[in-house]
Amino acid sequence: MIEARRAAAGPGVVPIEERDLIVRLLTTLLREDVAGLRTRGRQVTTADGERWLVLRRLWIPVRRADPALGDLVNDLAVRSAFVHHRTLGRGRIRARRLHAVLRVLRAELLRGLDPEPAAELGTGFRALRQEAIAALAAAGLRRRYRPGVFGRLRPELTAGAALGWAGAIGFETLAAHRDHPLYPFSLARVGLPVGQLRRVAPEHRPDLNLRWLVLPASAIEQQGRLPSWWPEADGVALPVHPAVCPVALRHALAEAGLGRLELDRHSPDEFGQSGRFDQDRTALSTGSFRPTLSLRTLAGVRHPAVHLKLPLPVRTLGRLNLRTISRRGLADGALVGAVLRDVLRREPQFTDEVLVADESSWLHAGHPLLAVLIRRWDTPDRPSQGLDDAAIVPVAGLAGIGPNGRPVLAVLADRFADGDLDGVLRQYLRLVIGWQVGLWLRYGIVLEAHPQNVLIAIDRTARGPRIRLLLRDLDSAKLDLKVLADSLGGPAPRRADLSDERLAAGDPRELADLFVTTTLHQCVAAVLIDLCAALRRSPRPLLDLIRPLLAEAVARYPDSRDAGLLETGIMAASRLPVKRALTAATLLPKTRTGAADVNKYYGADAPSYL
Predict the structure, then answer these.
(1) Nearest-CA neighbor of 582 among 7, 105, 62, 140?
(2) How far apart are CA 351 and CA 554, in angstroms?
């Protein structure tokens, strides 16, 4: 075999983060069956017993996927971080650097396509290369500076310092040291210079001072109430993320009809009406902020139960996912939050177990870069939601490895449950499955329950360990308005109440697909598989808990229209739907996929782990 290493850095050892990105990319392409890679390719076992997936001149080293080996919703897993490309001389070129792998994949997946789809996929691969560059740089920085970050986190995550909202930000930072369970280049922030990552990205745990723009009250729409510490100004003070450059802000102001407002041209960190606003005085009154697991959502160091979600001209999880903020998203998030609180009033068994963020306060100045969502976790009657003695962790971070080298949830089980990790997991599974199934079957609501948007609070009461669910980022749910109206009656929203009609589900299958691809795949199976991989134990006994818990939950709603769909289409199914996020958000345009929402595009499936 001819071996060629086409690498910018020479023939040395490929960095571990680069190998990981190659495996994640190939795994995703197989899962989503991009250009028919999995279904049109043929499996070949060579004389040495190695298995390959072969598509024309492309050879990918594969094995059968197995949850016991850490694999989630795939037929095939990638066993090594390289591909072979057969040459005309019957030899093979081994591509083992990320950019070389991308070149080979692009050449072979486009081969044989008609001109129009080939051009579309070629455009997608150019965008994917941008993501690869950004992800590789971010992954290298994260690995290089992780010891220092963990050193700063260690005292924050011990004893009482790790409790309540003040301690929650440390767990958000830990979660940022894990990758998305399904999207290969989740660390890519296209549009954000690499040099700014250590200054603003959550994995580096920076302290940020916001910049504030003063707008005339007539130019801004305000809903809800501002925090008591909000800066006073002759107008309305609007926070600006420090990663937004002055040029982008000037363009936004001009497009919003506010071009008459001048920005201070002498300092990129100072904005204000006529260039005058005392940023230093404002920083003293508001304090600094730290990013949560989300790059654009910041928690106040002095006011940790208030989070500010700010727009950024940055693309994450795909070229079509621009992280600005629309007015309709703000309005719909507030609406869904109100609906969930109404549901909780009718479901006493969940009243103290599920906490919904208050996302009813926001500002929007008519441009997606001129906005802020003010997310509150405290209420006037319950200032801390009873969470002062709880550890608050995003589900995305439960299997993360902490500064002591052990998974976060295992450490918390030692602290709050006398080391009974399996007992904690059973309690978590019963709660998340029971709540989400009840929402769907009784109320026709399925939340886009990504592990970044769902948190747990774990503490100990006189009756033993207690787990509660915390829900945030509520603007991407799916609602069956008829089922919801039948359950809630008069308070139920109507289609005219939705700012974004995509929230309305037109078919029960939309609810089922969203439930499976977020709650089951990401908040249940991924947590169990990743935890067991970290602890070097089989996930099968824990995965075997899911089906009985689903059956227990569905039995509470025997008259639900969708009970049969959950039983036959999910519990009894041999294959489950998977989200084709890379395909819809980066590789193909909406005109090709037909996806109304690139984050809810399916069309592929994988073996069930139930």
Answers:
(1) 105
(2) 20
Residue 587, classed as helix, strand or coil, is: helix
In this model, does residue 6 exceed pLDDT 60? Answer: no
Q: Which two tokens stand for residue 591?
A: 């005109």
Q: Which residue has the higher pLDDT, 281 or 586?
A: 586
Q: Do the beta carbons of residue 502 and residue 332 sit within 8 Å? A: no
Write the pLDDT tens digit of every residue in 319-344: 999 999 999 999 999 999 999 999 99
How does the average pLDDT of the chain come out, rounded?
92
Q: Which amino acid is at 274?
A: S
- CATH 1.10.510.40 domain span(s) along the chain: 132-173+322-607
CB atoms within 10 A of CB 324: 17
Helices (H), 408-464: 408-416, 421-443
Look at residue 473 in the predicted model and tell me its pLDDT.
Answer: 96
* Cβ-proximal residues to 323 (8 Å cutoff; 6+ apart), any chain: 295, 296, 311, 312, 313, 314, 315, 316
Residue whose token pair is 């003010």: 374
Q: Are 38 and 65 in contact (CB under 8 A)?
A: no
pTM of the model: 0.93
Q: How far is Cα of residue 281 from the mean position of the Cα atoms in its chain? A: 35
SS3 category, 499: coil
CATH number of 132-173+322-607: 1.10.510.40
Nearest to 51 by CA among 30, 72, 32, 35: 30
* Distances, alpha carbon 527 to alpha carbons 22, 325, 409, in Å: 22, 29, 10
CB atoms within 10 A of CB 111: 13
Question: How many Å apart are CA 608 and CA 610, to the nearest integer?
Answer: 5
Which distant-in-sequence residues (6+ apart) come within 8 Å of 363 by Cβ? 220, 221, 222, 223, 236, 238, 371, 372, 374
CA distance 577 to 602: 7
Are 344 and 350 spatial neighbours (Cβ–Cβ below 8 Å)? Answer: yes
Burial (CB count <10 Å: 0-12, 13-18, 19+), residue 147:
exposed
